[in-house]
Amino acid sequence: MPKPPPYSPETAETLAVQALGFIAEDDSRLGSFVATTGIAPQSMREAAREPNFLAGVLEHILADENLLIAFADNVAIDPTEVARARQALGNVWERDVP
Question: What is the Cα Rg of the chain in Å?
Fold first, then answer.
């Protein structure tokens, strides 16, 4: 079986933005994301411009199998695509702590 082509950073960012939208459209998913990351909901739009933040969004999706499967079903992809996209983005975003 041939190896799938690598994700481009742009394609991976697009998938991560879709994942952020998926998280934001449900109060319980959003609450879990906010609790896990510590980011304020009003700061997400600005943070979403950062590839490392978007990598963190995919990490969050990957950390919960039920969330991963729900997201993959929602966007009609194989769940392994999320891991491939995550890898294409490199480092995970780390929020600055005062």
Answer: 13
